[in-house]
Design a protein that fits this description.
The chain is mostly helical and about 210 residues long. About 80% of the residues lie in helices and about 0% in strands.
Length: about 210
């Protein structure tokens, strides 16, 4: 059976698995952003926390994905549902680029711009939301781009714990030693990563251009 024939015959399942994959990676990336960006802001305000926060995120990043899923399986709330476990694990992987890029972007804002803002009477909160975050937005989006692409890639491993996604075809194909089934999962996953990377790369360039004009 050719790859095209397999895709046509199994198009409904392929669509369902693609939606599952996008949901896993998308929700995980949003959670990582909701936690990582505030943490990145926090360590710019409390520098003594930067080493432990970045160090912890770096340690998580070095744990192999299957091992991380294995560590989380015994957790009573997470282990009960594979999807919940996979989203939590993917969110953990997305933390480092978001924390690091938020921290780096804000720290690299030109001090003279900050001084000008203070001279205009802006408070620290106003400086953060009206000056620092807008100027750092390109770097932050770069971190989001890395986290999103990473989540899409690692989400293929989530099928090993029954969380669904395009990894199901990949693992099934490996078990059957069938290249067509493997490619039916691998190609859409790669395309999702490429499309996401291209879109966020375009957004990053736009924000950087706006920052330069400012």
């Amino acid at each position: 059976m050719s790859l095209w024939h397999f895709v046509v015959v199994n198009r409904a399942q392929l669509l369902d698995l693609t939606v599952e994959h996008i949901t896993l990676a998308g929700v995980a990336t949003l959670i990582a952003a909701a936690v990582g960006i505030p943490l990145g802001i926090l360590i710019t305000r409390v520098p003594q926390l930067s080493k432990p926060v970045l160090g912890s995120a770096n340690v998580i990043q070095t744990i192999p994905s299957l091992a991380l899923f294995g560590f989380l399986l015994p957790a009573p709330w997470l282990g009960e549902r594979a999807g919940r476990l996979a989203i939590f694990a993917l969110a953990l992987y997305g933390l480092l680029p978001l924390i690091r890029n938020t921290y780096t972007g804000i720290r690299n804002v030109d001090p003279t711009v900050l001084e000008a803002g203070r001279a205009m009477g802006l408070t620290d909160r106003q400086l953060l939301f009206q000056v620092e975050l807008p100027l750092a937005s390109g770097v932050i989006i770069a971190g989001l781009r890395i986290a999103a692409v990473l989540s899409i890639g690692v989400a293929t491993i989530a099928a090993a714990v029954g969380a669904g996604g395009l990894g199901e075809f990949i693992f099934r194909g490996l078990a059957m030693v069938n290249n067509q089934v493997i490619l039916a999962g691998a190609i859409p996953a790669a395309l999702l990563a490429l499309v996401t990377d291209s879109f966020l790369g375009w957004l990053e360039r736009r924000l950087n251009a706006v920052g330069l004009r400012s």
